[in-house]
Amino acid sequence: MESKTILKEFREKVSEKINLKEKGIGRYLVITPFLFEDGDNLVIILKHDKKQNKWKLTDEGHTFMHLSYFMDIKDFQRGTRQEIINNCKMMFGVDEKEGELFLYVSDGKFGDSLFDFVQSLLKITDITFLERERTATTFFEDFKSSIYQITKKRKLKVEFDYYADKDKRRAYPIDARIKLEKKEIFIFAINSDNKCLNSAFSLLMFEKWGMNFGSIGVFEDQTEISRSVLAKFSDVCEKQITSLDQINRFDRYLENK
Predict the structure, then answer these.
(1) What are the pLDDT digits (tens) for 202-221?
(2) Which pTM value belongs to this model?
(3) Which residue from 175, 62, 74, 58 is spatially nearest to 125, judged by alpha carbons?
(4) Summary count for the chain: helices (H), strands (E)
(5) What is the pLDDT of residues 144-183, one digit of tens each?
(6) By CB distance 3.0 to 4.6 Å, which of 23, 99, 174, 179 could disulfide with 61?
């Protein structure tokens, strides 16, 4: 398949901001807008594996190397972090060999493969937030309490930590779901760039599945989200609430539904 055709699929399925840079015969650097928390770009290479006669996406070991800047490599080879990494690999069909994460392109589905590979890398990098999110904020508890109080007043049923019926792999968590007469409302609690990106990916997948839903992003502090990440989320989210101090706007949103 020609590189122009591959790039077209990447842009259609993942992002218009993706580019390919040739790095040799059958080898391309995939330039994406997706970042590590410190602002470095994800490293993704598309190359042809001659032995398997297949194309594959690989990070060439960069993801784990990047994580090692922030924690001892032994810390993500055991316990909860190891479990998260293993679940991410299994969820998206990603393999690992000597620290290299890679995914073979199946059935010529380059766009779908890149979509899955990017998500797996972003979810794996979430392990850097594990301890911080356990201790630094009560945002998620406050979010659930606020949503519950509003839905209770309106006599609506809310389900937290919800997965859509079409999400057989349970790869796209929804922080809260409300079932209205004509459609569902999916609510995402957002406290970091990575959570914002993951939420955007979830919404893109729901659109791809042809689901009928409304979407809301509730931020701990929207001003803390980088502009590039927020722009991508804004493209796919129906309504945004900048902080829990503005949660009354969600109440007014329900009035019109």
Answers:
(1) 999 999 899 999 999 999 99
(2) 0.63
(3) 62
(4) 9, 11
(5) 999 999 999 999 999 999 999 999 888 899 999 999 888 8
(6) 99
**What is residue 172's three-state secondary structure?**
coil
Helices 139-153, 248-255: inter-axial angle, 10-degree rounding: 30
3-state secondary structure of 91: helix
Residues 146 and 59 in one domain: no
Q: Are residues 116 and 158 in the same domain?
A: no
Domain boundaries, position 103? 3-133
Residues 147 and 78 in one domain: no
With tokens 């990017």, the residue in question is 118
Based on the fold, state whether residues 210 and 111 are members of the same structural domain.
no
Cross-strand partners of 177: 159, 186
Low-confidence ranges of the chain (pLDDT < 50): 131, 134-136
d(CA 5, CA 17): 15
CB 197 within 8 A of CB 233: yes
Same domain, yes or no, for 161 and 119? no
Residue 136 has what pLDDT? 46
The string over 148-163, giving b where at least 16 C-beta atoms fall within 10 Å of a residue's C-beta and e elsewhere, is: eebbeeeeeebeeebe
Instruction: Kindly state whether residues 8 and 120 are assigned to the same domain.
Output: yes
